[in-house]
């Protein structure tokens, strides 16, 4: 086992691919880093989330859930872990979720600029129903506050495209952002539906959305050890892909 696995601290971001497991400072469970969030201390002495795992300095790893981050604040894990008195805001768990949302919005905006997003009910419907799309559909996106009727109609197009029991090719359905947040990413108002076309930028958006889903859904389970599994089962990203989560 790697030496980096049995500690919740690191001495800085790693450039190699070997450090894929870390220990959560709250639960003391060893998990893949895709299920954790790295926190560092800013030059001003504040604890901040390092979502891209690139900020300099020592890092403390916490399970990617609101409850775990809030518990780390409540039980003073950051001061203990970094062995110093720090400025820790009571809203750190909510602030971290805001950063995760912003990260997903930015990733979607990049995908849109790369021509990998189609928005609007009619355009999305045509893209899903057409075999002549310029790229395969990577995912279907709905605003979390969208009307159920439109969502049902487009979801009905996704299911036949998947094929019976063809789980490896089912199209994920992403519902992690509101209409306002989708509009911010795509530069237009009242965005309810979008189709994500295949491409590197699209994979990045899906990866960041999955992290946001895990952060929110893990709190639905009282058993922290079962949170990651149940978050996947109940995820608004309805995907059955078995490959590892794409990384930035």
Could you characterize the architecture of this molecule?
- It is a single chain.
- The N terminus and C terminus are likely disordered.
- Helix 3 packs across helix 6, helix 4 runs parallel beside helix 5 and helix 7 packs across helix 8.
- With 248 residues, the protein is of the alpha+beta class.
- Helix content is 38%, strand content 16%.
- Strand 8, helix 5 and strand 9 form a beta-alpha-beta unit.
- The two termini are 25 Å apart.
- Strands 1-6-4-5 form a four-stranded antiparallel sheet.
Which stretches are low in confidence, meaning pLDDT under 50 for 5 or more residues running? 1-6, 162-168, 222-235, 238-248
Helix content: 25-40%
Between the first and last Cα atoms, what is the distance in angstroms? 25 Å
Shape: elongated
Question: How many helices?
Answer: 8
Q: Main sheet: which strands, in order across?
A: 1-6-4-5
**What is the total tally of β strands?**
10
Please indicate the percent range of residues in DSSP E strands (runs of 2 or more): 15-25%
Order of helices and strands: EEEEEEHHHEHEHEHEHH
Major β-sheet annotation: 4 strands, antiparallel
Q: pLDDT average, as an integer?
A: 82
Output the radius of gyration: 19 Å
Secondary structure category:
alpha+beta
